[in-house]
Amino acid sequence: MDLEINWTQFLLWSSAISLAILLLTLVAVPWIVARLPSDYFASPHRHTLPKSARHPLLLAVFTMLKNVVGFLLLLLGLIMLVTPGQGLLTILTGVLLMNFPGKYELECYVVAKPGVLKALNWLRARGGHAPFEPPPNR
Question: Rounded to whole angstroms, how far apart are CA atoms 21 and 90?
């Protein structure tokens, strides 16, 4: 009987976390997409912050926190593949937050898909922003 209560609590907590991540994603994705420059994916290299906007300590702390949150979302997404929740979306969000070699090329590959670029440009149009320029053929 005690084991059943633990599973019930686990499922309730995982469902609540899943719902919170879904709501956060619904708010964060359009906000981030609207703030990227329209040529973000058309550039041969990833955009970076201007040197004057970087303070080494703050940049290191921000990068570390971003990677930790991304890794936690990746783990939660893997758990949500077998429990209630939107596991694939959470995994994707976690991967996009983390820094790793080849990430920009992966982003360009995904955005090059016609349906993805169309959806991103729809989000940008709703916010009154210019559409993304498509990534070059790689």
Answer: 7
* 26 Cα distance to chain centroid: 11
Residues near 42 by beta carbon (within 8 Å), at least 6 away in sequence: 132, 133, 134, 135, 136
User: Which position has the token pair 């469902």?
Assistant: 15
Would you tell me how many other CB atoms lie within 10 Å of the CB of residue 83? 15
Q: Cα 33 to the chain's mean position, in Å?
A: 10
- Rg from Cα positions in the chain: 18
What percent of the chain clears pLDDT 70, i.e. is strictly above it?
Answer: 88
pLDDT in tens, 36-88: 888 888 877 776 656 556 678 888 888 899 999 889 988 888 887 887 667 77
Other C-beta atoms within 10 Å of 135: how many?
A: 20
Helix, strand, coil content of the chain in percent (nearest 5) = 70, 0, 30
Taking the whole predicted model, whether its pTM rises above 0.70 is answered as: no
Q: Do residues 38 and 129 lie in contact, with contact meaning Cβ atoms separated by under 8 Å?
A: yes
